[in-house]
């Protein structure tokens, strides 16, 4: 049975890094990075509806891909139960399993986010850094982490330590071994 592996957590925790590694180790798995898709919409930085439109498009892509019998890894911050339900529904429509994994250690998140922000490696990182700093910086990130814990208490927890240990913990949570 195909699985939608939703790696949820705040920015900088390593969701995309985990997703890339999982995809590399599992041929045929699609990595659907909604944040990267969003940057493909012309004028996305000034278009408040771009995020919603691209998430809806991503859901259609996820459902279609799961329908082929292959897994999808989704590194995406989702902190509202109605939005989580949209991803669960996409998996159900494709007769696939939905696995919600939460990666959210507050101190690690903030340290990694600040390191990534200092590197400013891509357009999305620059945008996210500006957004979170305007929203209250490290305090806003801590609030979002607490909110994630409340949205889905049943989510599988994956500790965010170093990349190798975090990946090993992800495989254990999914009942796989490296």
Describe this entry's structure for a reader.
The chain has a single domain, classed as P-loop containing nucleotide triphosphate hydrolases (Rossmann fold, 3-Layer(aba) Sandwich), CATH 3.40.50.300. 54% of the residues lie in helices and 11% in strands. The chain is built from eight helices and five strands, in the order E-H-E-H-H-E-H-E-H-H-H-E-H. It has helices at 15-25, 34-38, 50-66, 81-93, 106-119, 123-134, 138-151, 163-173, and strands at 3-8, 30-31, 72-75, 97-102, 156-157. Helix 1 (15-25) crosses helix 8 (163-173), helix 3 runs parallel beside helix 4 and helix 5 packs across helix 6 (123-134). It starts with a strand and ends in a 5-residue tail after the last helix. The model has no long low-confidence stretch (mean pLDDT 88).
- Profile the largest sheet: 5 strands, parallel
CATH class: Alpha Beta
Strand content: 5-15%
Number of domains: 1
For this structure, the quaternary state is single chain
CATH topology name: Rossmann fold
Q: What is the alpha-carbon Rg in Å?
A: 16 Å
Could you list some keywords that capture this structure?
single chain, 178 residues, alpha/beta, Rossmann fold, five-stranded parallel sheet, 8 helices, 5 strands
Layout: helices, strands, pairs:
Layout: E1 3-8, H1 15-25, E2 30-31, H2 34-38, H3 50-66, E3 72-75, H4 81-93, E4 97-102, H5 106-119, H6 123-134, H7 138-151, E5 156-157, H8 163-173
Parallel strand pairs: 1-3, 1-4, 2-3, 4-5
Helix pairs in contact: 1-8, 3-4, 5-6
How do you describe this structure in short?
The chain is an alpha/beta fold.
């Amino acid at each position: 049975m195909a699985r939608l592996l939703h790696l949820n957590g705040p920015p900088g925790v390593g969701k995309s890094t985990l997703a890339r590694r999982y995809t590399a180790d599992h041929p045929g798995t699609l990595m659907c990075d909604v944040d990267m898709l969003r940057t493909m919409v012309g004028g996305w930085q000034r278009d408040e509806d771009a995020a919603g439109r691209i998430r809806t498009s991503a859901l259609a892509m996820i459902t279609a891909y799961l329908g082929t019998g292959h897994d999808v890894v989704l590194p995406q911050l989702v902190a509202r139960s109605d939005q989580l339900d949209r991803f669960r529904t996409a998996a159900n429509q494709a007769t696939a399993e939905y696995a919600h994994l939460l990666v959210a250690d507050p101190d690690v998140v903030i340290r990694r986010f600040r390191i990534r922000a200092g590197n400013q490696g891509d357009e999305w990182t620059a945008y996210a850094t500006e957004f979170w700093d305007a929203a209250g910086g490290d305090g806003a990130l801590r609030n979002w982490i607490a909110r994630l814990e409340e949205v889905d208490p049943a989510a599988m927890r994956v500790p965010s330590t170093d990349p190798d240990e975090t990946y090993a913990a992800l495989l254990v949570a999914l009942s796989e071994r490296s």
